């Protein structure tokens, strides 16, 4: 019984150690994107990922089925017997997984003819299942261990077919008679390929207890008597059967009985000798002394443990104080870095701003001189028109300097921002560069029924992020004639996603991994400090969002700004 229990635990451990693998594919974003929008580029990336995962896990194959049960990506994509494109919707593990149940199935592959244990898991996108991940593993290591241990055992599945056995001759035989209907059903399912599924011949079966029988069975052509024990395996409809030779069991029982008798006699002799020599008073005194010693030792350990706990508590409090101080210092450094980034942006725009202000100043000088002459001549209507133009130019200069003042001032982490206002402010700050480069901006971030989008970020910080992203797009497209910039947005349950995409040459693959590193820049000379994307990502994270990048297949670069919506005030 102990041997049966130990081997059952070994089989259960072997068939459950791979159960986590199918659900692991839900963590790989490329798999979900392939199922939602299949392309050859995504299929190649998923194939390479599955191939590496299969090599590291030691499984036979890992593949992904679409909702119709067809293989769209597999670890053996480059092999002659690849599963790619194969329709496996008839398999029971697919039918269970597509309904949200764990798929567990042992069978022989219809393509390779190789036996294996299939584990399937439904891949979800939100509340719907968009595909099925399947892992095929081998269980023949159990058979090898049984053979090395000279153990006679086999495992039968829910159909009563032996799928694992220490003796290869009994594999794929039935442990109970199968009627014609069952044989036809199993043949159609191809679960056991084209095996004949003959019945295992056991003779002289005598039941002894629940799951225990005495049987005769021919091993290597020689009949012998066995004790047959059967036990159901946990979390599976399979059964483990252990065949123990009765002759060996009888010899072992005789040996154990003899040893037990000798041990009992020796123990009785020792107990009598010890009892004769024992003294009642000495025993009581010894017990009292032992109890006192144990009490003293316990008090000493309690004192030492209390002192250790107090010291640990003090060290923990000191670490907490140091952590709070470090967080405060880090926040201050981050605020200073954000402010430095703003000033750096203003410094880079200084030439354009000076040019933008010089034009109104020159016009002011000309209009004011003309106004004096017209007043002297008595042409009041012309002088009034000149003064009106002067007032409009002053208002224009005030807007420019006001935007710079608002952009440069220090702000906090919290607040609520208007997306429309932030885009307008960023375009106004970059107006000189936009005019000089003649870049066309496509705005598609508002729904036709929306006037604005409110986001949970401070207004100036949202403007700074947009200035950095649009300025980077201008720099990327400086050497081309056709300059296009798209501002597009979409809403979901978690927040709002704004994508800023240009039609520039894109980012070289060797520099993509360093985009968000501080002081890393691809701009020539001293045109950049390498802080723009770092600060923008930091500002987005501080507001509870993120800044990521994607590289469209059609070219250019797209930065995706994700920000949450403002929290509704408590009622």
From TrEMBL:
Gene3D superfamilies: 1.10.287.130, Histidine kinase-like ATPase, C-terminal domain (3.30.565.10), PAS domain (3.30.450.20). SMART domains: HATPase_c (SM00387), HisKA (SM00388). It is a multi-pass membrane protein. It is found in: Cell membrane. Residues 281-343 form a coiled coil. The keyword DNA repair does not apply. Its EC number is 2.7.13.3. Keywords: ATP-binding, Cell membrane, Coiled coil, Kinase, Membrane, Nucleotide-binding, Phosphoprotein, Transferase, Transmembrane, Transmembrane helix, Two-component regulatory system. The chain crosses the membrane at residues 253-274. CDD domains: HisKA (cd00082), PDC1_DGC_like (cd12914). The keyword Coiled coil applies. One of its GO terms (molecular function) is kinase activity. Residues 352-567 form the Histidine kinase domain. It catalyses: ATP + protein L-histidine = ADP + protein N-phospho-L-histidine. This is histidine kinase.
